[in-house]
Amino acid sequence: MSIPDIVYKAHGTGNDFVVYADPEGIYEPSTEEVVRLTDRHRGIGGDGLLRITRPQFVSDLSEGDVRAAQADDASWFMDYRNADGSLAQMCGNGTRVTALFIRRMCMLTGEAQDDKPLRLATRAGVKILSSLGDDELLGQDVFRVDMGKWAIGPVMGHTVSIPGVEGSARGTYVNMGNPHVVCLIEDGSASYTEALESSQATLPALTTLDLSRKPVVSPVLDEGQNVEFVRIESVDPLTGQGRAFMRVHERGVGETLSCGTGLCATGVTLRALTGISHWTIHVLGGVLDVDVDDESVRLTGSATIVARIELNPQH
Ligand SMILES: N[C@@H](CCC[C@H](N)C(=O)O)C(=O)O
């Protein structure tokens, strides 16, 4: 068993994880261990697993990646795996959970902490997290993560359908370190009829959409993708703010209650379609803010540590 005796259950707006600290680099999990621990019936349950370690202890990182993280002052690494055991480059909700975990862990060990933002290494580069405390709308232990550079493909460049569900929609590829295809399927604001028309959405309404099966994307993306389905709720051109609702089918997991990188990809796509850069986006698991500019995307939301769990050695 390459998992420590003590692990934690945590979530970021309902995107839930098995989490553990591995500061000495001795607990790199196998695919089978990830699948077993994240199993919702026979394990602890989670959309993924977060191993919080040091860059030099991540076996798939090149020496150059490790040196780059260290040179960028990032002493912690978020080693994320999807529930099916696959590695993913990035997990937006996971970064906030990791930041909260490191903060609590340092409090317990008495390790000196300053109020400086956390520089967290990930497979998609170093992400910077600031703690904002509690917020009336966003919840407790809110962090803002600067997710850095994004890239967008041709707007509505893909067709998305779902096996067993009538209809389809056009979707836009966004790279947030990991791959996303974002489909606008409703416009509750009635302000972007042209955008909605170009999405050619004939799928059922977002609240009734059956996401139990993996969406089919054409042209195919070799590395697979996370797929977001989005409804614009309202826009205020005076303040430059919009509200939207999003559901997501995650690569390596299935439908989840929230996906941080998916929210960022949604913000990037909605900005391309509407010109609005600041979005408050509801997901099944909560509400988050997404702010986009040409250089980066910032994601703001809560993080929760639910339990400390002692694993049964026989498990
Ligand atoms: N839930 C995550 C994304 C996790 C990785 C994703 N399933 C992938 O394979 O790319 C998030 O909060 O960003």
UniProtKB/TrEMBL annotation:
One of its GO terms (cellular component) is cytosol. It is found in: Cytoplasm. Substrate binds at N15, N82, G92, N93, N178, N226, E250, R251, G260, T261. The active site is at C91 (proton donor), C91, C259 (proton acceptor). The record marks H180, E250 as: Could be important to modulate the pK values of the two catalytic cysteine residues. It comes from the Bacteria. Pathway: Amino-acid biosynthesis; L-lysine biosynthesis via DAP pathway; DL-2,6-diaminopimelate from LL-2,6-diaminopimelate: step 1/1. InterPro entries: DAP_epimerase_AS, DAP_epimerase_DapF. Its EC number is 5.1.1.7. Its main location: cytoplasm. Pfam families: DAP_epimerase. GO terms for molecular function: diaminopimelate epimerase activity. It catalyses: (2S,6S)-2,6-diaminopimelate = meso-2,6-diaminopimelate. Keywords: Amino-acid biosynthesis, Cytoplasm, Isomerase, Lysine biosynthesis. Belongs to the diaminopimelate epimerase family. Catalyzes the stereoinversion of LL-2,6-diaminopimelate (L,L-DAP) to meso-diaminopimelate (meso-DAP), a precursor of L-lysine and an essential component of the bacterial peptidoglycan. Homodimer. This is Diaminopimelate epimerase. It comes from Bifidobacterium psychraerophilum. The lineage of its organism: Bacteria, Bacillati, Actinomycetota, Actinomycetes, Bifidobacteriales. The gene is dapF.
